[in-house]
Each structure stands twice: as structure tokens, then as C-alpha cells.
Amino acid sequence: MVTLHNGPLMDAAMAYVFRRRSQEEPIRVDFYIGDRFTLVPFINALDPLRIANLASGRTLFETRLISDDGKPVTAINGMRFEVDAATRDIQHADNIFMFIGFDPLMEVPPALANWLRRLVVQGAHLGAAGAGALFLAQAGLLDGYSATIHWNYRDSFLESFPKIRLSRNTFEIDRNRFTCAGGTATMNLMLHAIAVHFGQDLASEVADLFIAGEMGRPETKLPRMRRARVGVAQTSLRFVVEEMETHIEDPLSIVDLATRASISQRSLTRLFREHFQVTPVQYYRRLRLQHGRRLMQQTDMPATQVALASGFRSPEHFFRSYRKEFACSPTDDRRKSRQLVEERREE
Asked: Closest by alpha carbon to 33, among 132, 137, 180, 149?
């Protein structure tokens, strides 16, 4: 039995990822790809549907590739993809899945946003992978919905879009919207879709063909991905790092962290020195500065507000620590980051 979005055996209208017109017709999914889109989540979304067709011996899914003008699109790794249609050719759609090379500071193209709004009004289900959720958020297409996003954009997303309920799930399904964190989470979303639309057996067969192991569930949390990045198996240390990541704006004392982990402060310091070659204070400060750097590069927040959002009560302390950590001031870092974005656009 598949565990669905909010528990086992949910109401089908809430559990289903895609819009499906009838039991006899295949599910139609249109993949919009934008210039410099990320390849891995795109392949992880498209291929499970293709394999489901092969494994079932039926056309369960029909897919199309769409671009702004109907011309080939170049992925971020340089590969070019032919498409089936331009947005102007698509007047009706059941499901739109967005894969877009979207920078947090880019403006939303009005024509693309209006096209999506028109399709959604007609009843289309709309989804995005990774940074594509940023595009939907900036276009106002996720207001009032639950959504998720790649952890790298989570901090700036929370600051910028208070009308969106941001979850820590690797993928999120809320009525006619679906989002995922990208990467392998996209495949897990597709396997979940296959399971709820066509049964667990087919989804398991597709997962086996991809050697995907245990299928990810909607409630799989992003912090588990982040703990994997920490690269340590020590339970107390992983717990403390997660507590640090959860309390960026309101930092905990090292005494509080040790108490929550049920170890002594001395033992905690020893663990950090052994695994990270720094003290807990140094590690925590670095996490907060990295948080601040993402906000500087991905939002227009004033540097003084970024300092507070990063747990620094004194902006001067934040500026000094930032320069020491990254060899430049916060404002210089923002300027260089935006210059790089402009150079990429010109390319």
C-alpha cells in the first residue's frame, strides 16, 4: 500500500498528481523547458513515464516538450533538445511541468506567466522542479499553496514569499499544484504519481528498472538530505547540526545545544573538533554566514536585515565576519553575483 500525501488511502482528488480526463485516455503531461534548464531533474521526470508505458505495454502517459518559441533549447550542460511546440501553439493542457533555468533575481517573463495563468484557469495542473518553484512563486502561481524547493533556495524563499506554505518535504502535492526539490526527488515524485494513478505494482517495477531502491515518500524531509551532506554518522553530532540549521535567525547557545543533544559541552566540542576541525561556535557562525550569503545573492534584502535574519544582532559584527569568511563585503558579494548572472544571460 502506498502512503499518500497526508496519510494512507487518501481521497483520490487530493492524492493524484496529474489531471486525468478519463480512465480510458492516457495522462497528458507537457514539459516546458527553459534555456539553461538543469538536465538531471528533467530526465528523472520524463523517463519514469516512458518506462511506465513500456512496462505496462500501454500508453499510460503522453508527453510533449514545449519552449517559448518552438526552437531547440540548450540545457545548462550544453546539450540541445528539440521540442514539439511553442507556448503560442498550446491553447489547452492538462498538466504542465516546468523545468527552467531560473535565477532568483531574474524577472518573470509576462507572456510566459500569462500563458500559465490561462491554462490553470482552464483546469490544468501545474508543477515545477527545483528552482522552477521560484518562478511559479514570483509569478504568484503558488500563493495559498503548500510547496517545496531545493534546500539551496529555501532561506531566500521563506523571506520572499510569506503567502506560500513552504514544507521540508522532498516533494509536495497540494490540489492542482506539485513541486519537488529537484534531482532524485523528481523521480520519487513521478514514481508516486505512477503509484497513485496506476498502482503500486507498476511503480515498483519502474523503480526496479531504475535500480532506485526504496521509493521516496512525500513526507521524506529535506533535512535528511542536508544531514547526508554533513558526512558523519554520529547521531548526536548530526542532531546538533540540524538544530543549528533550524535556529539560524535565533541562534542557540552551545550550552543549549549540548543539553538538547544530552551530551556535555566538552563532549560536543570534542566531536566538532574531531569531525570538522573547528569548534561548535566556529561551525555555527559559518552556517549563519552561509545563510546570509544566500540571502545577499538571492534577494534584495538590505544588508542590515540580512544580518538580523542570519542571527547577528550587530550589523557591524556581521559585516566584519562576512569579510573575514568570504574575503569581500556583503554588498560587494551581491554586486559580483549579479554581474555573473548578467554575464550568463549575455552568453
From this structure: 132
Q: Which of 187, 222, 257 is the last residue of a domain?
A: 222
Q: Are residues 97 and 210 in the same domain?
A: yes
Cell matching residue 142: 503558488
Looking at the structure, do residues 238 and 315 belong to the same domain, yes or no?
yes
73: containing domain: 3-222
Same domain, 166 and 81: yes
Instruction: Read off the pLDDT of residues 2-58 as tens digits, 9 standing for 90 and up.
Output: 333 333 333 333 458 999 988 889 999 999 999 888 888 999 999 999 999 999 999
String of b and e for 10-32 (b: at least 16 CB within 10 Å)?
beeeebbbbbbeeeeebbbbbbb
SS3 30: strand
* Amino acid identity, position 102: F
Torsion sign, CA atoms 63, 149, 108, 34: negative
Dump pLDDT digits (tens) for 209-241. Answer: 886 555 555 555 554 444 445 555 578 888 899
Same domain as 277, residue 130: no
| Verdict on whether the full-model pTM lies above 0.90 | no
Q: Could you give the CA distance from residue 340 to residue 343 in angstroms, rounded to a whole number?
A: 5
- In 108-174 the beta strands, taken as DSSP E runs, fall at 125-129, 146-147, 165-166, 171-174
> To which residue does cell 550569503 refer?
293
